[in-house]
Each structure stands twice: as structure tokens, then as C-alpha cells.
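Raw record, unedited: Metallopeptidase
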Amino acid sequence: MKLLPLLLSLCLATPALAGEDEQSEFVADNLIATFYHEMGHALIDQLELPVLGREEDAADILSVLLIDEVWEPETATGIAENTALSYVFMAEANADAEPAFWDVHGLDLQRYYSHVCLFYGADPDTRAGFAEDFELPPERAEGCAEEYQLALDSWWTYLEPLQEQAPGTAILAGDSEDDFAAEVISDEIDALNERFDLPYEITVDIVSCDAVNAFYIPDESRIVMCTEYTDYLWQQAEAADL
């Protein structure tokens, strides 16, 4: 996969990974993006939102929108970069496997390009370098601003009233078996509660669940971030020698 060596050299040189511990940055950024994704499922359930297409795609879109909304531009770019890089690692790891066309998620590289396109489309005037660095094809890039605006209009129709009622206290930290992930997610809970007042409580548990996964349980109004998923992110970072 030609993307991998290029993106590794690129991301290792970016300010977002220039902190004391690049691996910690990578893991934390991907935990944030995944938590936002699961919040998408929670909001679709609690607000009874219409989804025209795959719910997983809608949740991916919200993740990018929240990265852009919650964080300052430079930090948001770092999170978007590390999330994109994780998609490339997954695609590389699965390069010899039969594509899972049956899966509810898009293929790894499809999710990668959609992620890059949306984040670039949020601010194409200042993120042209991001699009170029992450090899977004020009034929896709030309429609990314419109793609982002459509996504923003769709989600913010429902989120803006919640934003106008902020702050809220509906997102709650639950059980945790991982101190690192708990600290990262607790900060995100505080940030989202500052920006939105959700109609119902959502509890976030970080526990072992014998799977590399994160998921939302509608009947329990609960997001589960599996400790195995955090371990997997650490393995990705170590394998890439970040």
C-alpha cells in the first residue's frame, strides 16, 4: 500500500505528534474520534434521527464534525491526521484479506478518504496542505466543501437546539478499567457537556469486552469503549514505531 510509508514520514514530522510521547498522542486522538463516533449512534437513537444511508457513515461524519467543532484548528488537525493514519494501518493489516463487503462499516480506505475529505472541506482555504499530504485526489477534493456543508447542515439541524441549551450534564463517566482512556474520555465528556444539553443521560464505560471494539447499547443508553480497542491502538502505534 503506497500510502503507508508516505504518511508515516509525514505524520512523524507534524506538530501534532511533536509532543513528549507520540504514541500517547496517537492513541488519545483515536480514542477521541471513536468516542465521537459512538456519540453519533447515541444521538441517532435518543433524538430518533432519520438516517438516509448507513448509520455507521452518519456516525463517522459526526466524528469529523465534532473534531472540527470542539478543538482549536491546530489540535483538530492533529486528531484528524492520527485518525486517518489509523485507517491506513488497518487497511495495511487487512491488505491480503478478502474485503468485507457485507460489513456495516465502509472499507478502511473508503472511510479514510471520506474522513480526509470532510475535514479538508471544513476549511479548504487553510487545509489544502492537509489534503495534499494525505493524497486526497483532486477529483474528490473539488467536492469536499460541498460535502462538508451538506453534512454540517444535516447534523446541526438537530444539534443546534442542544447547543443553544448548553451547558448540560447528560454525558456521564461510568466504570473504567483503563486509567489512560478514562482520562482522555473524561475530558471529552466535560467538553461535550459544555457545548450541548442532551435530552437523556448517556453513560460511558471503559471495560474489557473480549473484542477490539467500541459500541453503543440503545436499551441501556450506554457507550462501551473496550479496553481491547485501546490495546489495539497502542499496538498500532508501536508497530509503526511512532
